[in-house]
Design brief:
The complex is a heterodimer of chains A (423) and B (365).
Chain A lengths: L17 H41 L4 H6 L1 H7 L12 H16 L3 H11 L3 H12 L10 H8 L6 H9 L7 H6 L2 E4 L2 E4 L7 H32 L2 H12 L6 H12 L4 H9 L14 H25 L3 H9 L4 H29 L3 H6 L7 H12 L2 H25 L9
Antiparallel strand pairs in A: 1-2
Helix pairs in contact in A: 1-19, 3-4, 4-6, 5-6, 10-11, 10-14, 10-16, 12-14, 14-16, 15-16, 18-19
Chain B lengths: L9 E8 L8 E8 L4 E5 L6 H9 L6 E6 L2 E2 L10 E4 L11 H10 L5 H14 L15 H13 L5 E5 L7 H18 L2 E6 L2 H7 L2 E6 L2 E6 L1 H6 L4 H6 L4 E11 L2 E6 L4 E6 L8 E6 L16 E12 L3 E8 L2 E9 L12 E6 L5 E4 L1
Parallel strand pairs in B: 3-8, 3-9, 6-7, 7-8, 13-19
Antiparallel strand pairs in B: 1-2, 1-4, 4-5, 9-10, 11-12, 11-14, 12-13, 14-19, 15-16, 15-18, 16-17
Helix pairs in contact in B: 2-3, 2-4
Classes of the chains: A mainly alpha (423), B alpha+beta (365).
Bound molecules: adenosine-5'-diphosphate (ADP) and magnesium ion (MG).
């Protein structure tokens, strides 16, 4: 009974706007749906979203300097690092007071470790000074510039004060700059010494190796998936077990077995030497380098390529192939013009899966990568678990996340994410 | 059983096919199809029709026997060199190509030049009244439109032989009837030989020059539609084609073109012996519902009559459909035209029914 000239919102039978009535009717359904996914939602929030948010936060968070040295930070504000002179007595006094308080709370060591990432030697300087400062009667037995310089000449280092000033803000781009082989120098952002450059190269290597691994997975997986999809169901199910078999073996076992196969005294080298293809003195180095990483990871990630390919190929009706042949196309033309284009969504899905898994892979490169076959994740793990530089680890992780999201976005622009099918 | 003559355009010569080496899916198939003929393979699902078509197209190999195309055996020619157009049940239009690209595909692989190709594609699209749809993707077309494109694609490279495997199975009734007409029109206009597979007997009867009725891997009868309907050679064909009444009995006597049959209820009727040969043999007597008459005035003088009880009367508009109990058979159906002077029967009444002896065929049991 809504007439055509009506301009306002459409009304339901009881006079309320139809939209609102509909929402009310759907609310119960939505609540029930929400209740059903609630456990998973909470789980994901706690174990996935929260850590990622925490990581993003840690990669820029820097309040430790201003928390531990509040007076120094304040006093250093007016100091001009470019003047070439040391800060004045008030700054040294503030530092002595801050250090005494920090020492009492044992916070100066943590800070020292943090500053040590930026310039080396801070750690021992702070420890040493900390031991002295607790005997002083701050702020009454100055002047502190002299006293501190007495404790250690390093207090006269212009660079030390510059670093403290540079990192006195609560948030810093420093970790991200470090992750890109850059740092905050006196004149703003600058490249680090060539000898210290590592992360850009690591990112490039990670990308390159991941691409090589993805391409190898396509090359090895496509024919297998094709075979599986064209065999009768009973046979293909049997063979599928072989594809899935690696999933049932521990990752460590699989990686270690590659060690057994590839090492210089390993099975493959032994066979090559026995056949005479390789001289006993020049056994091939196939492990603890990039080759080892590529081989082991291709093997481990292969099922992630085969499964989506298979499930896409399974849905390509055989009648397309028959139609193509009946129209006069040879086997090759039929494959290339008819079958292959329709399997592209499977390649897309498999590639995204393999590439994203590879780019963040950790354990296999760690075990078989040596030095030139390790990934950026191995550096992240190093910073998180050994060097303790969580900020840098978080920044590296964030960059990795951004790279993956960007690749995903580019892929969506070029291929279209709708074209990805996991079957 | 028809035997293959060597002068047909398509010849199946004692062809057998087994998929598993244990059972024959196609048993001793002999079939000859003349140039320009529209032949339909009709039969229930699983009777081996698709298998025959696939052997002809080259996607399955015959286990035994020869298939000849234009006099030459084609057993060893791969499918893409056979030059046979095919229409599939699900159309098999390539989803990643536009309609025009689909049609151009067979021309491209034949290395036909671009301008020539475009002209042929356009002609083929116009032929199925789809000229405006060249730029669309198959998914953007309705089922009927896809069907037309599939047809156009099978014809665009001007094959002499076109195979169609239940091409109209997915369409609704009205569209199906329209397409039946279109397909026969095109086939005759272009003079192509067509082998058409269906399990729909109406389709087979309305479209074909000849119908081969398949069952159990054999051709049960090969005949033009009218002959198939009016003169079925065995009880499978009689049952399968159209509606049919059967009365079971035993042959009492055969005299020339007449046989006396003792029905299981004891009545004796006269029938035309078709594939019965000697007295004492079991038989099924087949009578078409529309050949049964109960109006005394219209009954032929020498028509044979039986008593029948009316069980059900259904008004269907153009015809009346009445279910009777005749000689112990509760499913004896008669159809009568809705004419002004036609009497409507009422359930419970007893009537006399009759038919001409030649409409009553004594077939195998
Ligand atoms: N590829 C195949 N492998 C094994 N058996 C098959 C295959 N195709 C068909 N059959 C069997 O052959 C018989 C005939 O099938 P088909 O030719 O498709 O019959 P129709 O087309 O008349 O329905 C069926 O029993 C079917 O199960
Ligand atoms: Mg079939």
């Amino acid at each position: 009974m809504s007439d055509a000239t009506q301009t306002g919102p459409v009304l339901a039978a009881d006079g309320r706007p139809l939209k609102r009535s509909l929402q009310r009717a759907l609310r119960a359904q939505k609540m029930r749906a929400l209740a059903l996914i609630a456990p998973l939602l909470i789980f994901v929030l706690l174990t996935f979203v929260a850590p990622i948010a925490d990581m993003l936060f840690r990669s820029v968070e820097n309040s430790i300097v201003s928390d531990t040295l509040p007076r120094t930070v304040l006093a250093l504000k007016d100091w001009d690092a470019k003047s070439g002179e040391l800060p004045d007595e008030s700054v040294f006094a503030a530092m002595a007071e801050d250090l005494k308080i920090a020492e009492a709370e044992k916070k100066h060591i943590t800070l020292a470790i943090r500053l040590n990432y930026q310039t080396s030697g801070v750690s021992s300087l702070f420890r040493k000074t900390g031991r002295q400062v607790k005997k002083w009667d701050v702020p009454n037995d100055g002047p502190y510039m002299e006293k501190l310089l007495d404790v250690d000449d390093d207090w006269g280092s212009h660079e030390l004060w510059r670093v403290i000033q540079t990192y006195s803000a609560n948030y810093t781009p420093g970790y991200f700059l470090n992750a890109a082989d850059m740092e905050l120098g006196p004149d703003g952002v600058q490249q680090v010494d060539d000898s210290q450059k590592i992360y850009v190269m690591m990112f490039k290597r990670t990308m390159f190796l991941s691409i090589v691994i993805t391409v190898s997975c396509i090359a090895l997986g496509y024919p297998v998936a094709f075979l599986l999809a064209s065999l009768p169901l009973r046979t293909s199910n049997m063979l599928m077990i072989l594809v899935l078999l690696p999933f049932w073996t521990s990752l460590l076992v699989r990686t270690s077995s590659w060690k057994v196969l590839l090492q210089q005294q390993g099975v493959i080298n032994d066979i090559l030497v026995w056949i005479g293809l390789v001289d006993d003195a020049n056994r091939l180095v196939m492990i603890n380098n990039q080759f080892g990483t590529i081989v082991a990871m291709t093997h481990i990630l292969l099922p992630f390529m085969i499964l989506p390919l298979y499930s896409v190929m399974k849905t390509i009706p055989p009648s397309y192939v028959r139609a193509s042949k009946s129209l006069g196309a040879t086997n090759w033309t039929t494959f290339w013009r008819v079958y292959f284009p329709q399997s592209v969504p499977g390649i897309g899905a498999g590639s995204i899966l393999v590439f994203i898994l590879a780019i963040g892979y950790y354990i296999t490169p760690e075990l078989v990568g040596g030095t030139d076959g390790i990934f950026i994740s191995n550096r992240i793990a190093f910073h998180i678990s050994r060097s303790g530089n969580w900020g840098l680890g978080a920044a590296l992780g964030s960059i990795l996340l951004i790279v993956v999201l960007m690749l995903y976005w580019i892929y969506d622009k070029i291929v279209g994410i709708d074209n990805v099918s996991l079957g | 059983m028809p035997t293959a003559s060597d002068d047909g355009f398509v010849v199946f010569d004692r062809v057998q096919k087994s998929y598993d080496g244990e059972t024959l899916v196609v048993k001793d198939l002999n079939l000859s199809i003349a140039k320009g003929e529209f032949l339909t393979m009709l039969g229930p699902s699983g009777s081996g029709k698709t298998t025959c078509l696939m052997m002809l197209a080259g996607f399955e190999t015959a286990t035994h026997g020869d298939i000849l195309l234009d006099g030459k055996p084609i057993n060893n020619i791969p499918p893409h060199k056979r030059g046979i157009g095919m229409v599939f049940q699900n159309y098999a239009l390539f989803p990643h190509m536009t309609v025009a690209e689909n049609l151009a595909f067979p021309l491209e692989v034949r290395k036909i030049g671009k301008s020539d190709r475009d002209a042929k594609v356009k002609r083929a699209l116009d032929m199925v009244q789809m000229g405006a749809f060249g730029g669309r993707r198959p998914a953007q077309l309705s089922g009927g439109q896809q069907q037309r494109i599939a047809l156009a694609r099978a014809l665009v490279f001007e094959p002499e032989l076109v195979l169609m495997d239940e091409p109209l199975g997915a369409l609704d009734k009205q569209l199906r009837e329209h397409m039946q007409f279109e397909i026969t029109r095109l086939a005759h206009e272009l003079g192509i030989t067509t082998v058409y597979v269906t399990h729909d007997q109406t389709e087979a009867l309305t479209m074909s020059d000849n119908v081969a009725v398949f069952d159990d891997g054999r051709i049960q009868q090969l005949a033009p539609p009218d002959e198939l309907y009016e003169a079925p050679q065995n009880s499978f064909v009689a049952q399968f084609i159209g509606e049919n009444n059967t009365l079971e009995g035993t042959i009492k006597e055969i005299k020339g073109t007449e046989a006396l049959v003792t029905l299981d209820g004891g009545e004796i009727i006269v029938a035309k012996p078709v594939n019965v040969s000697k007295p004492g043999e079991r038989t099924r007597v087949s009578i078409r519902p529309e050949r049964v008459e109960y109006n005394k005035d219209r009954l032929h003088a020498d028509a044979h009559t039986l008593k029948a009880e009316v069980l059900e009367f259904i008004y269907m508009g153009d015809i009346f459909r009445t279910r009777l109990r005749v000689a112990g058979n509760d499913n004896f159906v008669i159809k009568t035209r809705n004419a002004p002077d036609q009497r409507r029967l009422t359930p419970g009444e007893t009537i006399e029914i009759g038919w001409l002896p030649e409409d009553c065929r004594a077939l195998d049991a």
